[in-house]
Fold this sequence. Notes:
This protein is of the alpha/beta class. The protein has one domain: Rossmann fold (3-Layer(aba) Sandwich). It has 10 helices and 10 strands.
Amino acid sequence: MKLPDEKFGMPACFNVKSKPSLFCPGCGESMILKHLGAVIDNEKIQSKITLAIDIGCTLLSWDYYNFDIIQTHHGRSVPTAVGYKMARDKRIVIALMGDGGAYAIGLQSLLHAAFRNDPILAIVINNTEYSMTGGQMAPTSLPDEITSTSPLGKNASIFGPAFHGPELVRQIANPKAFIARSSVSNPIMMETIITKALKNQITNKSFSMVEILSICPTNWKMNAAESFEFLAKLEKVYPVGEIIKNKSDKDSKSISE
């Protein structure tokens, strides 16, 4: 008899006895988890991984993987991951969070981890809102974007423009840090970026950060086609690729090759 991962193409590091998906229909996070699992399988590092997860939709990933997972408080996945890495320096440590956990309540921890060059990987899922609690406006919400707390559209003159987290982190991060952005619209590029980020932690013993643009059809109140049309708009505001520091060059460069 074939195991579920063989039958449905799921990564072997997934917990085949886990509960059915609790993500909303069409949620991009399930795609992210699958491709993160594929990278872990390809690199054969399942036994070495520890994952710290944030409060929010990311906490639903706690029993989908068959490796060590730590659930943290909101905005605290990065410092928890850093502390764990200090205690268990041979482990490969990933902190998984949403854009609110990374760029609002957790921004201080994210910036200082990058500044210290702590050898962890921070994965930030950016869908421009606080999803689990009802789609409230987040730092990453676009100007004029309608959310549950900005029904007339986000007023950028009051709340600021779209927040570019990786670009900010790049300015204070160690030169050896790997900072990049990807999107669920391009799974191959997503896996390439995650692979490079993990190898940077392992080989260079340096900080890595990957922001992944994702879709939230439920809170966006969009169907599948409309969600990916809005995602394409996000990719113009938030360019995908590796984020480089020299502002005289382009803000990002493609690493899809």
